[in-house]
Amino acid sequence: MKKNDWKDRLNIVYSTNPDFGYETDDNEEQTTLDKAKQNLRVSIDKKNRGGKVVTLITGFIGTDNDLKELGKLLKSKCGVGGSAKDGEIIVQGDFKTKIIELLVKEGYTKTKGIGG
Prior knowledge:
This protein is α+β, with helices and mostly antiparallel strands. 22% of the residues lie in helices and 19% in strands.
């Protein structure tokens, strides 16, 4: 297979320069930090959510699969829906104290609550 696949190119469709190096999205998936080193922040958020309250967990450093696994665990323990993407987990409803307790119990010792 050719190294210069057109689907992998970013921002440039075609170039007549033979020495042109196409920008590609070759970012390596980052490894997940140890649970004790994760610096997670738990907060309550209402902005841009139609007045609905959600619990927002930010600061996760690691792979998307590990983020989704943690999100799935938190959502199932709280018995609600939500999502996990872009380094943050959204859990529907006000579960700030419960989520902090769950994270500390799971080994995320640097977890902190933010805001009221």
